[in-house]
Amino acid sequence: LAERFEGVSGRLARTEVQLVAEDSSLNEKLHELRRALADSECRWTQADALLRQRFDGLSGELTAVDERHGSRTAEAVTRIEALGGRISSAVQELSNEDATMKAKLEATIG
Questions:
Q1: Rounded distance between C-alpha atoms, residue 48 and residue 40, angstroms
Q2: Model pTM greater than 0.90?
Q3: In the chain, at which residue ranges do the beta strands (DSSP E only) sit?
């Protein structure tokens, strides 16, 4: 019985040594994974900040472009309206001249 006990005791001691070694290895791997996760989170945070900064910059640029084009669009509308007024006046003048010519022709023919 004592020999059996010593054999079992020896196996238990070896198993304990293996378990301690595996536990140490697992703890080391867990530590490495936590460090990698922290590094990854740091990189994602930096990338997020950079993307937000670029988005804000682009948003500002788009706003400036929109403001420039908005004033240009208003100028173009004003010019088109003025041109429309001139065209309308020219059409009216041609219509008046046409009526005058028509009256003259009718008077001459008539």
A1: 12
A2: no
A3: none
- CA 53 – CA 38 distance, rounded (Å): 22
What does the pLDDT look like over 47-91, one tens digit per residue?
889 888 988 888 888 888 778 877 788 888 888 899 988 998 898
> In angstroms, how far is CA 30 from the centroid of its own chain?
37
| Letter string b/e over residues 50-88, b meaning 16 or more CB atoms within 10 A of that residue's CB | eeeeeeeeeeeeeeeeeeeeeeeeeeeeeeeeeeeeeee
Amino acid at 46: Q
pLDDT digits (tens, 9 = 90+) for 5-22: 788 888 889 999 999 999
